[in-house]
Specification:
It is a single chain. The chain is an alpha+beta fold. It folds into two domains: 82 residues, Sandwich (ATP Synthase, domain 1), CATH 2.60.15.10; 50 residues. The chain is 31% helix and 42% strand. The chain has two helices and ten strands. It has a five-stranded mixed β-sheet, with no helix packed on it. A five-stranded antiparallel β-sheet has the order 4-3-6-7-10. Helix 1 packs antiparallel against helix 2. The radius of gyration is 16 Å and the shape is globular. The mean pLDDT is 90.
Length: 137
Amino acid sequence: MSTFRLEIVTPEARTYSDDVEMVVLPGADGEMGILPMHAPLLSLLKPGELRLKKDGHEISLAIGDGFVEVGPDRVSVITDMAVEERLIDEAATEAAIARAQADLKARDLGGEEVASIEASIAKSIAQLNLKRKRRSH
């Protein structure tokens, strides 16, 4: 089967780098699937689930905001978060959401602080959705 190189990079590290058969991304305008020899594309990403297929097996990661650049033989994902489902601590993520929601209610915040907290909540929700989806299968 034909493959392409998938690179996922966060500010902390290169999270993933390997040849894959397919990737599905949470684009700003909806979910998008990428196969080998895809037309060039540059798109924003929103927090959600990234699914990749390698050797017939599917791997899912929760990702944050970012962007994707697609070429015929390479897909580069730059994001502020990429976490495999098995590494997500559901209780800790729920607690982080609760703290962030409390911060939104308890403080007189400026627009930038509100946006930062809301972005944090969106990334945490992406992690919870992935964890719960995998548990229900």
